[in-house]
Amino acid sequence: MRPVPRDQMVSPLTSISFVGVPSMVFDLAESPLVGNADMLNIGFGGAPAAANIPELAQKSFPNAQCSQGYGMTETNAAVANFAGPNYASNPRSTCVSVIINVPIIVSP
Questions:
Q1: Total of domains in the chain
Q2: How many angstroms from the chain centroid is the CA of residue 38?
Q3: 90 is in which domain, residue-wise?
Q4: pLDDT-derived band of residue 87, with 50, 70 and 90 as boundaries?
Q5: Do the Cβ atoms of 82 and 95 come closer than 8 Å?
């Protein structure tokens, strides 16, 4: 599979939501398509996100809401999620547990 060039990552006519790893948000924000895409949702997980991602996304996509989540990829289940103003005001947080989960802190 060939890598997709940064300027072809998003179709400005159809993309309103984006989900990927945090580093992909930086690539997306630097893409020349930013001015044409009306992104509404930007989600990421799988790795710690830089604290400035909400600010960067807001500059590039003023209508977008950022969310960060952690989960069990293999089962397509969410364990923790963080979105919108809560995420923007606490970007270094590791999310909030989904209500059906019982978090357990284990000493190493």
A1: 1
A2: 16
A3: 6-97
A4: confident
A5: yes
- Please say whether the beta carbons of 68 and 82 come within 8 A: yes
- Give the pTM: 0.60
CB contact at 8 A, 70 and 45: yes
In a domain? residue 21: yes
The full 3-state SS of the chain, as one line of letters, equals: CCCCCHHHCCCCCCCCEEEECHHHHHHHHHCHHHHCCCCCEEEEECCCCCCCHHHHHHHHCCCCEEEEEEEEHHHCEEEEEEEHHHHHHCCCCCCEECCCCCCCCCCC
pLDDT of 66: 87
